[in-house]
Specification:
Length: 77
């Protein structure tokens, strides 16, 4: 893990781009429940959903390594 120079937060090893998301509170609550059920952070769950949608459209992305957890802003170590 490395420290982010701007805020001093711990960041996951993979490079990620912060992205502000405006979302309906009802949709967010549903995603939070889904994430909890699958033992993911909300950020990880949103990335999972987006990757599924892209795959369904035929967009090929690099596979995530098994030892590389999705980046999460929800649970800093």
């Amino acid at each position: 893990m490395r420290r982010d120079g701007l805020r001093g937060e711990l960041m996951a090893k993979k490079d990620v781009k912060p992205f502000l998301l405006r979302i309906d509170p009802t949709v967010l609550a549903a995603v939070q429940q889904w994430a909890e059920a699958e033992l993911r952070s909300v950020n990880g769950q949103i990335e999972y959903i987006l990757r599924q949608a892209l795959a369904k459209r035929g967009v090929k992305l690099p596979e995530m390594k098994a030892d590389e957890p999705p980046a999460s802003d929800d649970n800093p170590a």
